[in-house]
Amino acid sequence: MTTWPAPLPVPPDAPAPLPEPARAELRLETVLGALSDPLRLTIVQRLLLGAQEYDHTCGWFGFDRPKSSLTHHFKALRAAGLIRQRQYGLERRSHVRVDDLEARFPGLLALVAAWTP
């Protein structure tokens, strides 16, 4: 049983996703390595529990961090296969790859959702 909302449908006008590993290429050690950083864990948790739209920009989180630092963290999450990002003009929007992660690592997202900082 999940503790987060069901994934939202992809809007018909959504751009193609940025390059990411395929579901079969997701590796547990890479995913856990990306989640080992508290900020990245917070990003994934907030997308799981607080997302009200399909994609969210970096500014939606309200982090007081330099843009270059946030870019690095989002890139690490995408490279690990935790989030999908799409380019909308000058901004990138993100959401968690719930279906892929649940298929590869059942229960992992429930642990992330239950995590207390």
From TrEMBL:
SUPFAM superfamilies with a match to the protein in the record: Winged helix' DNA-binding domain
Listed SMART domains: HTH_ARSR
Ranges where the record places region Disordered: 1-20
Coiled-coil spans in chain: none
Domain HTH arsR-type intervals: 30-110
InterPro entries: HTH_ArsR_DNA-bd_dom, WH-like_DNA-bd_sf, WH_DNA-bd_sf
Protein name as it appears in the record: ArsR family transcriptional regulator
